[in-house]
Protein: TetR/AcrR family transcriptional regulator
Amino acid sequence: MPPRPRLRADAQRNYDRLLAAAESALDERGASASLDDIAKAAGVGNATLYRHFPTREKLIEAVYDQRIQALCDAAADLAAAHPPDEALAAWLHAVATHVNASRTLADAFDAAYQGPEGTEPPQVTAWHRAVRRAADPLVLAARTAGRVRTDLDSTELLALTAAVARAGDPQQAHRFLDVLMDGITPRPEPAS
Structure:
């Protein structure tokens, strides 16, 4: 997620309003939400929308970028405020919520990708990398505290979390994740 160039204060306000309106519209109506309605909800003209986001895909990418950044920021905040196992569990619940809440956006972004078939869009690769970097310290801290199996790394745990989040009904995801967390907790060796 490369840093965006600095904008004038009024341009930044318009950008922020457009992102908020887009996120709301995309969540309510999916990736086919009207760009005209998004501009109107943000209180700006279509030209302002297209100046910031020349294509629907760029708008979806910006909304998703914002969500990934918030998810990564949450990892550090939770690590600073909670014991390692609680921080990891809370963050993985946030990941599961993100997976379910962003499913339509992710599918739309993938569908719009014009690259070679069977390859992941570069921005998706960057998002996955950012999430793994956010997960690494949480997993390491929980592992060091003896609260996560030592043979499990961040990539595997994120894959399991994503699978659990997509399994069954989205309301079940958090129950499934609690079961997963119990399964990755080391157990004492039985006395012989």
In short: Residues 31 and 126 are 21 Å apart (CA to CA). The mean pLDDT is 90. The chain has two domains: 1-54, 55-183.
